[in-house]
Design brief:
397 residues, disordered C terminus, isomerase, Rossmann fold, binds flavin-adenine dinucleotide, EC 5.4.99.9, alpha/beta, 11 helices, single chain
Length: 397
């Protein structure tokens, strides 16, 4: 009998498998319907020998020392700061928009101070910020909104920014200096030998058994376990009883080219031209030296694997219905981006999984304490015939 069946071998499932096996000596079966571990962070050497990310570029960045220290047990790191250019008006300019973006685009020679005033002069007054369009035009004005955001968002989400909740672009990271890093987190690094190698190390414990190419429904009635950790889609778990939670998907077109480098930087965004949103060249991310290079084009689409939850109020309402059910389901713990219907970065999922592990162990400690009290009570009862009532905070056992 397994102590835990963990559905999904991405960050959420693998962190919990590792903690439960190594720290709590639990027997864990981790399964995934895909033919590999690492979930969406899966990387592999393609047929030409170039290390690529199957599900699009994954760049690790976090402000959490705890998360960074935790993952550092399973990998060495390669320091990496991500940089992105956007193709606008026939030029490649830094993204997020910074001093160089504006000077290059408009042929200006502004200083940082002057750029602040410039942004203020172009920003639109929006009394109440409700949509993604409001967020952007109130910060950088309509022209930059049209050049950088409007069409990109329409491609990415299949909707105009005016129809999308403000949370989609809740923050427009514009800079008045020349900082052209995409992220500003304290820790920015890539696993030295790739994500999959890091996951292999996490899961290499005799208490952990891995089963791939397996949907949990195939084994749930066959393999005995005490508790389940579910990191798949929450609506799927409940047989879509309230309807399907909407997601935006992507089609990844991978290509290997007979040239050492292809792009001037890791990622080029195409807000206006082409059906794809961006091209990524993996060697920038991985630091690999190779005479050929591999790139991926991302084509947003409505159908396919669930990647981005669509942040609209009616979807949040639908998710809340599933969450209520999930909260009432004994011995099943829902964690990760699909089970909580939220776009999380990798570090956030690691933090979420570590928090759940803490909760589970606190529960175990509480169980032990209750068992101890029960022993005393039973002893007491056999001595004087009266019993004390004991209640558990976790009503499910
Ligand atoms: C295109 C793209 C780019 C991204 N880039 C970044 C980035 O640069 N930096 C960053 O920090 N984050 C990035 N992310 C987010 C990152 O992918 C997630 O934070 C991370 O994958 C979440 O881990 P998870 O374990 O919750 O989910 P997943 O990695 O999706 O793992 C869930 C697993 O459950 C399995 N599963 C589902 N249903 C079943 C079932 N019925 N039976 C068995 N198994 C099942 C799935 O096959 C999957 O492997 C990106 C996401 C996307 C889509």
């Amino acid at each position: 009998m397994f102590d835990y069946l963990i559905v999904g071998a991405g960050f959420a499932g693998s962190v919990l498998a590792e903690r439960l096996a190594t720290r709590s000596n639990k027997k864990v079966l981790i399964i995934d319907k895909r033919p590999h571990i690492a979930g969406n962070a899966f990387d592999h050497y393609n047929e030409e020998g170039v290390l690529v990310h199957k599900y699009g570029p994954h760049i690790f960045h976090t402000n959490s020392k705890d998360v960074f220290d935790y993952l550092s047990q399973f990998t060495e790191w390669r320091s990496y700061e991500h940089r992105v250019l956007a193709s606008v008006d026939g030029q490649l300019v830094p993204m997020p928009i910074n001093l160089d973006t504006i000077n290059k685009l408009y042929g200006l020679n502004l200083t940082s101070f002057e750029l602040e005033d410039w942004f203020e002069s172009v920003a639109e007054q929006v009394p109440v910020i409700r949509t993604s369009e409001d967020v952007v035009v109130s910060k950088v004005g309509r022209e930059l909104y049209e050049k950088f955001f409007r069409n990109y968002t329409r491609k990415q989400w299949g909707m105009d920014p005016s129809e999308l909740d403000k949370s989609v672009t809740s923050r427009v990271p514009t800079r008045t200096n020349r900082d052209n890093r995409y992220f500003t987190d304290t820790y920015q690094a890539m696993p030295l030998n790739g994500f999959t190698a890091m996951f292999e190390k996490m899961l290499a414990h005799p208490n952990i058994k891995i089963m791939l190419n397996t949907d949990y429904k195939e084994i749930i009635d066959v393999i005995p376990f005490k508790e389940m950790i579910f990191t798949g889609p929450v609506d799927e778990y409940f047989d879509y009883k309230f309807g399907k939670l909407p997601y935006r998907s992507l089609d990844f077109k991978h290509e290997t080219l007979n040239t050492e480098t292809f792009l001037p930087t890791a990622v080029v965004n195409y807000p206006n031209e082409h059906a794809y949103t961006r091209i990524t060249e993996f060697k920038y991310l991985t630091g690999q030296k190779h005479p050929k290079t591999s790139v991926v084009y991302e084509y947003p689409q409505a159908d396919g694997d669930p990647y981005y939850p669509v942040p609209r109020p009616e979807n949040a309402e639908l998710y809340n219905k599933y969450k209520k059910l999930a909260d009432q389901t004994p011995n099943v713990h829902f964690v990760g981006r699909l089970a909580t219907y939220k776009y999380y970065n990798m570090d956030q999922v690691v933090a979420q999984a570590l928090t759940l592990y803490k909760k589970l162990t606190e529960k175990t400690e509480e169980d032990k304490a209750i068992a101890e009290i029960e022993k005393i009570v039973i002893k007491g009862k056999s001595l004087n015939g009266s019993a004390i009532k004991i209640s558990s905070k976790n009503g499910n056992h």
